[in-house]
Amino acid sequence: MDVTSRREPPRAGLDGPLGGNAASMRATARALARAESAEAAVLVEGISDQIALETLAAGRGRDLDAERIVIVPIGGAHAIGRFLTRLGPPGVGLRLAGLCDLREEEIFRRGLTEAGVGTPRTRTDLAQLGVFVCVDDLEDELIRAVGNPAVEALFEAQGDLRLFRGFQSQPAWRGRDPEAQLWRFLRSSSRRNLRYARLLVEAAVARGTVPQPLDALLASV
């Protein structure tokens, strides 16, 4: 059975029954509406990043709404320039921060430069502007932070372990690196990916192993 065909219960909120472009567009529209009364905006590539950061903020006892901080999923790194222009100094003038994957680092750096936010040449320069880079991406950071056994324990608690074992036995993934198997399993369903963004951050907070880019970003705002 294809792992993407598993039925999952509908959930309210960001990780709800819709996935793909529809969910992304709705999440972006909601965030932009909140940005009208915000003081700071955190630009992230997608909904899973938004869920992870909002979950971390809650775990740290922070109320982002009260702090007038909004996390905006921009629908992919290539949209960064448009959102910097709209929300940053050329537009509304909010304080800005951001999170991106390693492979999108150069796109964010170029977008910041073209929007007149700064001229970051190094990752340290990016951090000084409030932009932090996940290596390789959010899921990879969270898997390493929580550890393979604990991720599998979460799968078991959520009723996903049997499905994961079936995924591991598929010819294309049999014998592959366990971290790669976990990563692909999470990414093979958008709803699963969004659900575990929250669960893995909660686990990392409980273990005191929150990935550095997430921790540093939240601290910067």
Topology:
Layout: H1 20-35, E1 40-44, H2 47-59, E2 69-73, H3 80-87, E3 95-101, H4 105-114, H5 123-128, E4 131-134, H6 138-146, H7 148-157, H8 161-168, H9 178-187, H10 190-207, H11 212-220
Parallel strand pairs: 1-2, 1-3, 3-4
Helix pairs in contact: 2-10, 6-9, 6-10
Tell me about this structure.
Helix 2 packs parallel to helix 10, helix 6 packs across helix 9 and helix 6 packs across helix 10. Helix content is 53%, strand content 10%. It contains eleven helices and four strands, in the order αβαβαβααβαααααα. The longest helix has 18 residues. The protein has a four-stranded parallel beta sheet with strand order 2-1-3-4, sandwiched between helices. 38% of the residues are buried. It starts with 19 loop residues before the first helix and ends with a helix.
Structure characteristics:
single chain; about 220 residues; alpha/beta; four-stranded parallel beta sheet; 11 helices; about 10% strand; disordered N terminus
User: Sheet with the most strands?
Assistant: 4 strands, parallel
The secondary-structure class comes to alpha/beta
Shape: globular
Strand order, sheet with most strands: 2-1-3-4
Count every beta strand, where a strand is a DSSP E run of 2 or more residues.
4
What pattern of helices and strands is seen along the backbone? HEHEHEHHEHHHHHH
